[in-house]
Amino acid sequence: MQSREPIQLVCFDLGGVLVRICRSFGEACRLANLEVRGAIEGNVGQRIRYEFSQRFNTGKLDEQTWSSELSRALDGLYTADELRRVHHAWTRKEYDGALTLVSDLGLANVATACLSNTDQSHWTRLVHHDGESPLPGAPEYPSVYRLQHRHASHLLGVAKPDPAIYRAFEAHTAQSGPSILFFDDLPDNVRAARKVGWRAERIDPHVETVPQLRRWLRQHGVLQA
Question: Distance between CA 225 and CA 73 in Å, rounded?
Fold first, then answer.
């Protein structure tokens, strides 16, 4: 049975929820105009990339070090420059209607946030800020730019689904438990959020996400029909 406590904060994962991302290394290669080489998508290649991704996403490696060390770990299958090209291609455009949804939550006086497993290079594009000043021009991801609270794994030093990242988010936002409604595309992250007491729902990234988000927001009483 859902808590009757009103929702004070709606928190989104970014990739696969508000922002389209590649779902495989091969897809990102094609967008970067590179061929899929060797067994990069096999078990060993996936394991190596995952290990480096975890270190990159928790702020232990910068982009230059990540790409250089990963290239060596892959025995030069891709150069460091090619890995950075693939990495840049991984983050695509917003899902249709994402900005309107975030704006509607603002009009409803509901606070908004994101909690994303990401790294500094993607984060700079996502939030339109390099950590010191805004980037020139219009934001590439206006829905993310509009969010009131923006938190990421590489800044917090821990990644979902580790319970510590949810607790860190609570400390930064002064919200906790069922006052938070969280959306993520990965079941493990949703389960972890529920274990710390949040209300959380999974979003399917393979179809348009905004209609799903609106259905859940209506079901939880955040937005009207």
Answer: 52
pTM: 0.95
Angstrom distance (rounded) from CA 103 to CA 109: 10
Q: pLDDT by residue (tens digit) across 87-102? A: 999 999 999 999 999 9
Residue 79 contacts by C-beta under 8 Å, 6 or more apart in sequence?
71
Q: Which residue has the tokens 């206006």?
A: 142
Share of the chain above pLDDT 90, in %: 97
Report pLDDT for 81: 98
* Beta bridge partner(s), residue 180: 9
169 and 182 in contact (C-beta within 8 Å)? no
Residues 6+ apart with CB under 8 A from 186: 13, 16, 160, 161, 202
**CA–CA dist 94, 153 (Å, integer):** 20
